[in-house]
Specification:
about 0% helix, single chain
């Protein structure tokens, strides 16, 4: 059901979430590094903030 979640008091809660997209680049030594990080669709469940 969209927009509705049920919680079990004994399970961990997801306080917030976001979609993160990393753009990677390869270094001269062949290692991978993050060149650009994009964070979007951030949401928080205010009912479970501490």
């Amino acid at each position: 059901m969209a927009g509705h979640m049920e919680y079990d008091e004994h399970l961990p809660k997801l306080i917030s979430y976001a979609m993160v997209t990393d753009r990677l680049t390869k270094t001269d030594t062949g290692d991978w590094r993050v060149r650009h990080k994009r964070v979007e669709n951030v949401s928080e469940d205010k009912a479970f903030h501490f």
